[in-house]
């Protein structure tokens, strides 16, 4: 019985020894595959992101705090393309970035892998849906519109102010190109949050062009310009004409003055009867006409007319009349050398009958009633008024003052 127990114990001990020896061999088998080396995984980068660009992208991340990390391997196109970025810092509070150029207008996936000096790699981070923009996006852009109601105005100091509509949310800036008073081309930049921009040294009569840029995403690295410039509407200043150059025309068919109220008094800056006489004609019936030499060919914009205040909206004050223009009028007073510019009708705010004037009527007439010429007229030096009807339906006319305004 004792001999049998001894035999069993020896057998058990032998099995245990064999098992231990076998396990030791299998436990070290992995070294054959790892060349007797341990696997080392460098620390990961964090907060990986990108800024969209023009046929490029700008990748950024916070570096790994692992001091062994010496570089980052960036791959895309399923690993076909790659670049290496040296680890300039191991401070995770520092932001690293790199521009990846030469890309197509497409959506990419990138992988950023940290590496140590021995070539060990981190698992890496995937960055998907990285949008790259290019010519197709630029072709879809249009310039920020100027304000259609008041595209421009002149400030009290004489500088030009350009007005725009509210910018699109993707608008970044608008470049204004113009000619300065010295004849040189200048550029100024209107930012997206501004509605207007002042041009202090603009040369009047020259073109103003503008081109806008846009960022496809709020944090984009690049702004895209519209492919071509847009042009502002014609920019001009409305100025009062120099009355010292005016002269009265006196053709054979023109109406003559009466009562010492001469044609030349229409540009002596006396708008009230208390200041002096105006222009008055005889009662030969309607129509009657008279002409003025403005002194030079002019782009006419408008004029103001002051009535004789003692007969406001009555008697011989002008109600309906035509204005004609010429640069070489026939001296015989005929109309063949004249061009009709337009017909004007005087306006009475209250609409009350003759002899009844409201406070609005009086104020409107006292300011000088403004009449505006049609746009696009040729330049004229001579103008001729043909009066068709007066407010009092009289065969004569009278008025105090005329002030002309031109475009320049």
Automatic annotation (TrEMBL):
<feature type="domain" description="F5/8 type C">
    <location>
        <begin position="267"/>
        <end position="404"/>
    </location>
</feature>
<dbReference type="Pfam" id="PF16391">
    <property type="entry name" value="DUF5000"/>
</dbReference>
<dbReference type="InterPro" id="IPR000421">
    <property type="entry name" value="FA58C"/>
</dbReference>
<dbReference type="Pfam" id="PF16389">
    <property type="entry name" value="DUF4998"/>
</dbReference>
<dbReference type="InterPro" id="IPR008979">
    <property type="entry name" value="Galactose-bd-like_sf"/>
</dbReference>
<protein>
    <recommendedName>
        <fullName>F5/8 type C domain-containing protein</fullName>
    </recommendedName>
</protein>
<dbReference type="InterPro" id="IPR032164">
    <property type="entry name" value="DUF5000"/>
</dbReference>
<dbReference type="InterPro" id="IPR013783">
    <property type="entry name" value="Ig-like_fold"/>
</dbReference>
């Amino acid at each position: 019985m004792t001999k049998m127990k001894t035999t069993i114990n020896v057998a058990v001990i032998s099995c245990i020894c064999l098992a231990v020896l076998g396990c030791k061999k299998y436990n070290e088998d992995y070294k054959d595959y790892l060349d007797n080396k341990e696997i080392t995984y460098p620390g990961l980068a964090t907060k990986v992101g990108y800024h969209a660009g023009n046929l490029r992208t700008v990748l950024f991340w916070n570096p790994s705090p692992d001091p062994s990390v010496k570089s980052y391997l960036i791959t895309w196109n399923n690993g076909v393309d790659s670049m290496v970025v040296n680890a300039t810092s191991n401070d995770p509070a520092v932001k690293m970035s790199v521009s990846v150029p030469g890309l197509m207008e497409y959506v990419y996936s990138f992988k950023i892998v940290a590496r140590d000096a021995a070539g060990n790699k981190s698992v890496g981070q995937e960055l998907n849906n990285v949008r790259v923009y290019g010519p197709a996006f630029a072709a879809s852009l249009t310039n920020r519109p100027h304000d259609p109601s008041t595209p421009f105005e002149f400030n009290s100091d004489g500088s030009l102010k350009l007005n725009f509509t509210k910018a699109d949310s993707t608008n970044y800036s608008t470049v204004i190109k113009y000619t300065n008073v010295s004849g040189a081309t200048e550029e100024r930049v209107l930012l997206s949050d501004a509605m207007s921009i002042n041009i202090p040294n603009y040369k009047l009569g020259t073109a103003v062009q503008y081109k806008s840029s846009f960022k496809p995403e709020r944090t984009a690295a690049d702004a895209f310009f519209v492919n071509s410039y847009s042009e502002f509407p014609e920019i001009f200043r409305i100025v009062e004409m120099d009355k010292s150059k005016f002269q009265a025309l006196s053709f054979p068919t023109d109406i003559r003055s009466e009562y010492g109220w001469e044609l030349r008094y229409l540009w002596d800056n006396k708008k009230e009867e208390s200041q002096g006489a105006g222009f008055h004609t005889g009662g030969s019936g309607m129509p009657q006409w008279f002409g003025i030499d403005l002194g030079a060919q002019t782009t006419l914009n408008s004029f103001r007319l002051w009535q004789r205040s003692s007969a406001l909206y009555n008697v011989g004050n002008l109600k309906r009349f035509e204005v004609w223009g010429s640069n070489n009028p026939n001296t015989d007073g005929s109309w063949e050398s004249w061009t009709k510019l337009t017909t004007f009708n005087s306006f009475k705010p209250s609409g009350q009958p003759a002899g009844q004037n409201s406070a609005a009527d009086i104020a409107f007439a006292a300011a000088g009633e403004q009449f505006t010429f049609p746009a696009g007229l040729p330049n004229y030096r001579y103008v001729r008024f043909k009066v068709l009807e007066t407010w009092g339906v009289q065969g004569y006319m009278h008025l105090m003052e005329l002030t002309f305004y031109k475009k320049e």
